Amino acid sequence: MKMLNLLKRFKKDEDGAVTVDWVVLTAAVVGLGLIVMGAIRPAIVGLSGSIATEIDEADKDF
User: Fold this and answer.
1) DSSP per-residue letters across 49-60
2) What is the DSSP letter of 16?
3) Once rounded to an integer, what is the mean pLDDT over residues 20-39?
4) Integer Cα distance of 11 and 26 in angstroms
5) To 5 degrees, how large is the angle CA 21–CA 25–CA 26?
6) Is the pTM of this model over 0.70?
7) How confident is the model at residue 18 (pLDDT cuts 50, 70, 90)?
8) pLDDT at 50 over 90
9) Within 13 Å, how many C-alpha atoms sit on residue 62's CB side?
């Protein structure tokens, strides 16, 4: 009987539910950030290469 009461209390206890929600939400935000970075990375690499070329050309003029 004591074990049954313990199981019932455990089932009703929701203290960890908020923590699980935050962990899932944080994982979703991090995953979304990684997906976005993967999508825009080629554009960033191309733009930084163009900027480096412009700086090198400007540096040769001085």
Assistant:
1) HHHHHHHHHHHH
2) T
3) 96
4) 25
5) 115
6) no
7) confident
8) yes
9) 4
